[in-house]
Amino acid sequence: MIKAKKEGVIFRKTELSFENESVLNPAVIKEGDLIHIFYRAVHIKNYSSIGYCNMDSPLTIKERWEKPILSPEFDYEKHGTEDPRIVQIDGVYYLTYVAFDGDNALGALATSTDLVNFKKQGIIVPKITYTDFDLLTQNNINLNKKYLVYNEGANILADKDLVFFPRRINGKLVFTHRIKPDIQITAVKELSDLTDDFWINYFSRLKDHIFLSSQYPHEAEYVGSGCPPIETEHGWLVLYHGVKRVHGNYEYSCCAALMELNDPGKEIARLPYPLFKPDQDYELAGGDVDDVCFPTGTVLEGDQLYIYYGAADELIACASVSLKGLTEELLRQPFLNPPR
């Protein structure tokens, strides 16, 4: 069994108006000697923007901006830009986030070539109604009934946790996203291929696009995308969040799986236990949400993998683990066919 080391709290909210409620769920990328962090900054009444800081070591902040780097501009994000992730593909930085208009929460994209100036590309996940989803997925034999339970009554289904793989695979842009209760995977040559017809065909064959499903007790309720996948010689290391019920509440843990390099929808191995879960005071109790470790970004220094996460939806913390040790532990796990 492998255990991650809790490195503690990295930073907390300030008195600045855009982040005086909480800071959480950071996107992280290293360029040269700097680690760049784009984080969800929340102010009163749960309105979110994206803040920025950089670090000159995995645990030490060098500079922190006193204003957001990305704020709501359009109707589709008027209530918040939330939970960013970031990768670089073909010289372009892809920063994904949840666009929240007060009713609908959907994955959106902003791109940059310098990590300072971002161009918003809009929502790129499907905007599908509950009724259309029910109709289009009727031919998916044995589709998890939780899809209808979790999404019943929604006008537009929430599609969150949008995360790109950090390079093209077989010439395609590949990303994961999440309509509860599973993580789905999508691959296209270009983002312009994400048309209404594309999504109609996608949902009629949804079972073919399920990336990860709940398999173990610590992820029994649902799973969601976490950090951008990490390429290793053994496959893509995927750190995601798993959710279970504990005494009537949800507990969010950091989970790990290994996926095939050239066919990332195929699972090689999965930890049968959480890599880490809430057990520190700052993870167990927050302002509004308790029992949360929500991983969203990583930095690799030699063999040491630093995992940044939102703790109790209130602050940003870090854990670390040996990359070699984690992949070796994954490869020791027997493969179980996940439910489809």
UniProtKB/TrEMBL annotation:
Keywords: Glycosyltransferase, Hydrolase, Transferase
Disulfide bond among keywords: no
Listed GO MF terms: glycosyltransferase activity; hydrolase activity
Mitochondrion is among the record's keywords: no
Family label: Belongs to the glycosyl hydrolase 130 family.
PANTHER family: GLYCOSIDASE
Protein name (record): Putative GH43/DUF377 family glycosyl hydrolase
Organism: Mucilaginibacter frigoritolerans
